[in-house]
Every structure is written in structure tokens, then in C-alpha cells.
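[Q] Does anyone have a clean C-alpha cell version of this?
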Amino acid sequence: MTKGKLSNAEEKKLREDAPGDEIGILMRGFREATLSVERDLALEDANWINLSGATSELITDASRILNLRLSRLYATRDPLGKQSIRLWTDYTFGRGMVWSVAEDNKEAKKALEAFWGAKENQGLLSSRGQRKSSDKVLIDGEIFFAIFLGASKDVPTIRRIDPLEILEIITDIDDKEKVLYYKRQWSDARGTPHTEYYRDTTNLVGLPGVDSSSTEVQKTDDALIYHLTMNTTSQRGNPLLLPALLWMKYHTKFLSSRIAIMLALAKFAWKSKVKGGTAAVSGIRATTHDKEIEAGSHMLENMGVDTTPIKTDTGASKAYQDGRMLKLMIFAGVGFPEQYFADISTGNLATAKTVELPIQKMIESNQQVWNDTYQDIDEIVLEHAGIPEDKWHVDRVFPPVTPLDVVAVADAIVKIVGTFPEFGETPDVQQQALLAIGINDPAAVLEELTRMAEKNPSVALTKALKQFKEALKKKGAIE
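[A] Here you go.
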């Protein structure tokens, strides 16, 4: 089997696992559903995890590709899958991450502003680009950033590479943790196939590496690759939805079965017992069948006919509990409890105003991962621009996981600055205050405040916050 391709059995599994219109299938009978469960579980045991194998990887390359494709389908078509990805990205990035460097570090600031502000990089570095990168790493389980440095005076360009195009990660023969190259196979817009080798961002000197077939890498592309993974202990990442994919599939089938039951019960609403032969039955049918009868109408019968409503109890209460058990497995797999998935009956005021501690820790950890990622990328850009290493520090602010009380934040800062005036001159305090009152680009506002302060020293953050507080009073937000 060609590397990166799926076998016939795996292609069949991909089609079967893909979310689709299950209702038509299930209306033909429920026996196939039972057989499908048994067949899928057998396929899981046979092909997905082989604990007796010699390889240290529990998920093969072919299975990883299958998982990635399924994750893309479910993240797009399954409501629970889409909401899971949306929650992670919304809580991690919100309106976007903002960065800043010390005012006296002008060279680093200039280099990073050119990189982050370049029009060709906005697809990855703007707020929209940050959210898209988050979605991609959650859905695919990994993301490959290609950084084109160019000449020393050029502004670096950053792009993404589809994980399906990266066929091999080449490491040092004596150190598997030391990645040297990435092998990529892809086709351009004209359909012409290409095979390229890229250096890892840590392999800046381009030392020769050896791939799995003992063929020396003699030429590499100009790009450097930064590889970010999640949900894995190996070289390649796994999708966030991987632990929940099977449960999403059977949750979809379960709901489809419920719909099939309701549609079947809705076919007949009344039954009539008629004393008489075929002619009497035909007479009743001619009176009621395919006739539109207004609501609240009277049905007049003689003693020869007995019309009663059909009992249509679908067992919805028990079905809700059954469906909830399936959903809980999905929620456990993606890390968010059920009140985040349209069932607000399980929440309360406390959970509506705050976030549970495990979720807060989970998202803050993810924010730190992205903070480290952007720091690594910025350091590559700064080194390329010739900035000394002691000037590489960058402050990044992600949106708070729990909602801020804007009035309380403004009031607290005003009181603190009133006691410690120099506290208000700290860029971090100023940036946090601006973010708290809903300003999405605090760096630009701080620059404007600095220019205003140079012209008129009486203009300071304290005055701005006091004016904001007065505006809230006028709106009746505070007393």
C-alpha cells in the first residue's frame, strides 16, 4: 500500500463513519444498526490498535490519516463536533491575541511590526488568522507553519502546509527528539506533483540528514517548518475530536433512530373499527382518507363505527437519558461539560457568570501553548533581523477565560493609581485596562495616549479611566 493512501477497508470505514442522512437507512429496519455496531467494533480491534505489534506507535500512519479526515467531516457537519472546536477557539483567542515590546526596544518593535503587519501575513497573524490556525490544529491535531525568511532585509512570510502533504518527519539517527527535515509531497494548481524537503526551525545550519530509505537529503526548500502538535505523545498530532468520533457517530445514529420512530408513529393518528364488510370499510375511508379536516371538527358515527386515537408514546423521557449517556462520552472527550452544548437546564447562574476551574485551567494551558508558539516564531524573525537575543522578550495578552467585570476593573485601577500614581504609567496596566473596556487594539491606543501625553502631560490613564467611569454612571451601569 502506498504511504499516505488508504486501503479499501479503510476507505469503506471512512464512508461508513462519515456523518450523513441516516434516517432513510434506519427506516428500512433496525437490524442493520446492530450489525453495524458489531462490524465497527471488530474493525476497531482488527485495524486501529495492535498492542502486540513491534512498533511503538499505537496509531499507524494510515489510521492517523483516516482519523484526520473523519475529524474534518465531523467538525464541519456534526453540531457537537462544530461546537467543540468553536468553544476551544472562542475561549482561547476570543477577539484575538495582542502583543507588545518595551518602548525602548525600538529595533525589535520595528521588526515585529513589519512581520505581524505585513499584508501577506494577515491570513495567519490577524485575529481572523489566529482563529483559523486554532481551528486547524484542533481539527487536524497538528499544524505546520512554513516561514520564508528571504534576505536579511526582507520581511519574513508565513504560511500553513496541509498535514496530509507531510509524509515523513526526519530526525537525527541518534536522537529521535531532534527533528531535522520534513518531507512533503504535493501537487500545484496545474496538477504537477512535487517532492520537497524542508528544514526544521531548529536546523538552521542545514546539517545533512538521512531519511527512512537511507537516501541523503541533498537539497531543501527555502522555508523553515515550525510544527505544533496536540493530543499526542509521538511525532504526529491527533485531532481533538478523536476520542469522541465513535460516540458522535452512534449519537447521530441514535437520534436518527428516534426520528425514524416518530415518523413511523406519525403515519397513523386514528384507528376505526367498523362493523360490516368491505363496503362499510370503503365508506369510512372515502369519508376521511386524504381529506383535510379542520381542527376542532366533530366526528359523527353510528354504533357500527368506533374511532379512537392511536397511542403515540415514543418513550422520549427514557430516550433523553439514553442520548445523554452518549453525549456525556462526547463531552468528556472534548473537555467541555454539557451546559456548553445547548442544554442550559444543566447549568445555573454560577456557571453562566463564570467558568468551572478545570475549563479555566484547560484553556489557560492552551493559551500558554500558543504563547510559546508565537514566541518561538517571533524569535526566528528577530534573529533573522539581527536583533540581539537579550531583546527578544515579547509580552502577549490573551483574552481572559472568565468574563471581566468592566466596572470593577475600572474602579480598581482608578483606586490603585490614586494611591500609586506611577502604577498607571506601567504599559501592562494600561494595556489590561484598555482590553477590559473593550478596546481590541490597545497597542494603537497606547501609542496615541503617549503622543498626547508628550504634548500635554495632564493627559494620563487615570483621567481616561475616570472619564470612562463617568460614562458608565450616565448609562446607569453604576451608581
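[Q] Thanks! Anything notable?
[A] The beta strands are 98-100, 142-148, 157-161, 166-172, 175-187, 193-200, 224-229, 270-274, 305-309, 395-397.
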